[in-house]
Amino acid sequence: MNFVIKYDQPGRIRLRAGYDAFSETDALNLRRVLEDLPYVFNARTSHKNGGMLIYYRSEYREDLLDFVRDLKRSDIDYLPNETELESLRLNKKFKRDVMKVIGKALFMRFLMPMPIRKFSAIWRFSDYLDAGIMSLLKFNLNVSVLDATSIGVSMLRGDYGTASSIMNLLEISDIMEDYTKKKAVNDFSRGLSVNLERVWIESEDGEEISIPLEDVKLGDRVIVRTGSLIPLDGKIAEGEAYINESSITGEMLSDLKQKNSSVFAGTTVEDGNIVMEVTSLSDESKINKIVNMIEHSESLKANIQNRAEEMADRLVPFSFIGAGLTWLLTRNTMKVLSILLVDYSCALKLTVPISIISAMREASKYKVLVKGGKHLEAFANADTIVFDKTGTLTVATPKVRKVIPFGGMTRDETLRTAACLEEHFPHSVAKAIVKQAEEENLYHREFHADVEYVVAHGIASKIGDKRAVIGSRHFIVDDEKTPISEEDEKIINELGEKYSLIYMAIGGKLSGIICIEDPVRTGAENTIEELRNLGIENIVMLTGDSEKPAKETAEKLGITEYRSQVLPEEKAKYIQELKRQGRTVIMVGDGVNDSPALAASDVSVSMNEGSDIAREVADVILLTPDLNALIMLRELSQELFAKINRNYRDIIGFNSGLIGLGLLGLLPPATSAFLHNASTVAISLRSTFPCLPNSYKTV
Question: How confident is the model at residue 79, as a pLDDT?
């Protein structure tokens, strides 16, 4: 691609390729291609002049220029997804609607006689009057009443020109507000939703047929080949493939999926070919549920958003009181109108949700999914964070270091049986045991009966007619009353100084101990230190592990408060006690046993490797294994509410200034209305800007 450099500063460059360089759709695709580069933070493209504004890591300037120079049309020649097309439609509709209002206003003013202009103004006023009357009937003194009053006063004075101007400004303001909010939601959803136009299915006679995605039915067999996107949720009926599920889990490494494995819409087949049987249609797919959850998160409003709406409604009566006093003191209708035409509520109600939606979108850019605005608020205000240990502060892939058999079992029998039980349990320690058995080629058939997960303790089943249990010491010894001899206790105590221990008993007798090494997660110490610097005073580690491994981990990470051998219900009680003390608590965990504590906290965070129930319960999901995402989220949430408070000050200060100038007779009503609506839109647009700088390091 040929281009010229129009502006060049470290980290920010503007390129121009010319008026016929690419189409509007190409511009959209080009922006996506540029933003996919690891050293590019943000990009803006325009088909009108072939412009590209790119924010990037300054040390990669030459790499960026070489990349753009080598771009070919085929590199950007693909269809945008539905949310990107929706963004284009929103932009076009916004421009069309604004030009329509302006065009109508000019047409009426210069081409229509006064009687028709009066009739048009009265006809348009009827909608505002209806809205105002309906609000009064519901005993709501709100902006609708304010608008109807100001337009009505202008008409009673015979000033139909001012009344029409006010209605035009209100209409444009509504268009811009609607556009800003929809675009914020759409931008957040972009990249999550999946919308392919056509898919290949296998017909009953074995032929491959291409059909529209919307025609796919449950049970259809969809063919997906190397490099293709999986269009719907389903299970593999034939074949095997390495599938990258980073769009769902955040994990960049692909997994081998074989027959009967579940696959999800939006994930990619990196290598292999599969035939999948469709189990969920587009609207029911896992990734679309995420999108719908975000778009319909009104029930998750931040408290500050509710307070803004309440404050906005409470301020409306003061506008009427001010207007009434002004009329009594001055008898000047123009000054009264200047007060009625300026209100605080529109901007207060609009900018807060837009700021929150934009922040949620920004968090998703850093691989963090936040399920609602109130969780960002809790994260910003939290003074306490509680971490689970295993799989959270320690790596999600612990290792089996020793297997100690008891009760006449061999080492291999112990490991094989433990893996057979644990493969049903989605926890990092369980995965480590299963993986170790696989590495030693200790394969097994399922010789046990149905598996029962005993909440917070472990797993119970039957092997033959004997009860088989595996889990914590509390579960095996205290709950199951499994006896341990003094000789075995000495061995266990020595092992407990170095490792986390998993106990297994069969038929009421101790059958083995699995020794787990649980190394600290890379970067966890830095995360703890930075969170403390960001105002989280109280950092706690809770674990079901024994005292010595727990103490060792806490010391490595600089955590002064920890509790060992804690049961899941005790974790939840501990968090409830912290809340009773007036603390705002973040809980970070990954396992089924963490779910009671996650549910009890003010804001809960699940790791990306966590169990399904942990991710379901959690308010925030880290789609990256890096705990530094917590630092990003703390900084983002704090900056978000600093931005909201700045908006408050600007809204109140600017609009109060307009009212003051109107009272002094320095601003006519139409100008006040214009400046008021323009400021509302300007602050709303500013609310869509990122909270973190473009140079913020990606976690």
Answer: 47
Map 402-463 to HEC letters.
EEEECCCCCHHHHHHHHHHHHCCCCCHHHHHHHHHHHHCCCCCCCCECCCEEECCCEEEEEE
| Residue 54: closest CA among 41, 66, 63 | 41
Residue from 112, 187, 173 nearest 359 by CA: 187
Q: Three-state DSSP class for 190?
A: coil
pLDDT in the model for residue 684: 79
Starting at the edge strand found earlier in the chain, the sheet holding 12-16 runs 4-9, 12-16, 51-56, 40-46
Nearest-angstrom CA–CA distance, 371 and 54:
30
What 3-state class would DSSP assign to 15? strand
Point out which residues pair with 466 in neighbouring strands.
463
Question: What pLDDT is stored for residue 446 in this prediction?
Answer: 55
Return the pLDDT at 297: 46
| pLDDT of amino acid 557 | 92
Q: Measuring CA to CA, how many Å separate 116 from each of 79, 354, 460, 542? A: 48, 39, 83, 75
Residues 6+ apart with CB under 8 A from 589: 387, 388, 392, 595, 597, 598, 604, 605, 606, 607, 610, 614
* Largest pairwise CA distance in the chain: 107
Which residues lie closer than 8 Å to 609 by C-beta, 6 or more apart?
249, 251, 391, 396, 428, 590, 625
Place of tokens 């291999």: 412
Q: How far is CA 136 from CA 143, 273, 652, in A?
A: 11, 64, 25
Give me the residue label for tokens 């709501």: 140
* CA distances, 11 to each of 41, 46, 64, 619 (Å): 9, 20, 11, 34
Tokens representing residue 20 in the block: 């016929």
Q: CA quadruple 657, 658, 663, 666: dihedral positive or negative?
A: positive
Beta bridge partners of 542: 388, 563
Q: Which residues pair with 503 in a beta bridge?
A: 471, 513
Q: What angle do CA 400, 401, 403 make, to 5 degrees?
A: 80
Closest CA to 631 of 562, 692, 674: 692
User: Rounded to an integer, what distance in angstroms lies between the CA atom of residue 314 and that of residue 204?
Assistant: 65
**Which residue ranges of the chain lie beneath pLDDT 70?**
77-87, 173, 176-177, 180-197, 227, 246-254, 282-310, 312-313, 396-397, 424-427, 444-451, 453-457, 591-593, 609-617, 694-699
Question: Between vectors from CA 120 to CA 119 and to CA 121, what angle results, nearest 5°?
Answer: 90
Q: Give pLDDT, residue 321.
A: 85
By the 10 Å C-beta count (0-12 exposed, 13-18 middle, 19+ buried), 560 is classed as: exposed
Determine the 3-state secondary structure of 285 from DSSP: coil
DSSP annotation of 214 reads G
**Model pLDDT, residue 592:** 62
Cα distance between residue 417 and residue 433, in whole Å: 10
